[in-house]
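Example 3.2
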Amino acid sequence: MRSVEDQQIKVTAAAVAPRPVRVAISEAQGLLCAEDVVTERPLPGFDQAAIDGYAVRSVDVASAGADIRDEEGDLVDLTLPVVGEVVAGSRQPIRLQPRQTVRVDTGAPMPTLADAVLPLDFTDGGRARIKVYEPVRSGDYVRRIGDDVQPGDVAVRAGTIIGAAQVGLLAAVGQDKVLVHPRPRLSVLSVGGELIDIDRTPGPGQVYDVNSYALAAAARDAGADVNRVGIVSSDPRRLRDAVEGQLVRAEVVVIAGAVGGWASEQVQEALEGLGELEITRVAMHPGSVQGFGRLGRDEVPTFLLPSNPVSALVVFEVMVRPLIRIALGRRHPMRRIISARTITPISSMEGRRGYLRAQLMRDEATGEYLVQPLGNGNSSSHLLATLAEANSLIVIDPDDTEIRTGDEVQVAFLAQRG
């Protein structure tokens, strides 16, 4: 029986990232940047007002708020005439003269000679003339040209996951396209004479095709571009044709219901001659029996998964998902692992690494992670409803068969729900 680690090494060695492609920035979200995007223009491209207010020369308002009185002892207000207005997007240059001010909107270009913006709250808000209550220093409330990005700066680095902020920055520096690692294409097929699609009513001995839907969703969650083929005939010639059709369009192929019993023999017969394909036992549960190989001219990584939906999803999580993440260019393809204390006892199968469905919680008082297994690891691998409730997998070492309440275990985060 092969260890989980050895099988993962075999699988991940087959990972091939699709060649980087240049896409519109609107299509790049969630993908890994494949280049250093070097800016050619400064950002901002001109000195601009950072807030609504009045553009001034700071020297003209330096005495605002000071105790200055006239010959009769009365306080003297500092006032400036408002000689114009500049709105955002204005292309009409304005030159500010000494002891003048111009009303400016946020993002408006600064008038020539103006070196600061008076916030509205520092004034009485006048239209033709303003009283100035507080001074500002040179540069206050002004976005200087190149404050954010200078020409030659790297706006987005290779290896960065492109999110909303990166898309916004690329747009801000005038980059309409970016080189990215594309999503690997993955095809999902289901085999089994008992299967029908969900738009039909099952008869005696028939069940819905759960696997192609569930595995397609898991693949999308991992970041793949998924083609759900659905149910394919187990007739060797038809199955071979269906698989060959996917080998020319996908970087990864997943066939559910292809290991165990007669179905396994049919699949092996159908795919014979397409390439290396091995069905083996891996020291894990659920999903011990599984298959993997490289098929077709391009040696496409191909997985044979159990017909049991829970087992298929666990094998996908442990074996297929890391390969997808590597193909995406991710440096850390595995789920984050944390330590948690169990709140109930757990039984696990001796000699196999257990992947038990669980709910992970956090103690509000102590901040400690707590974990509640869902079902019994030895006897409930068929219970799909418990997997739907799970937000994590408890990972049990092969030597641990009985975990007591309060023992510390390793837990892998699954995708967050809600």
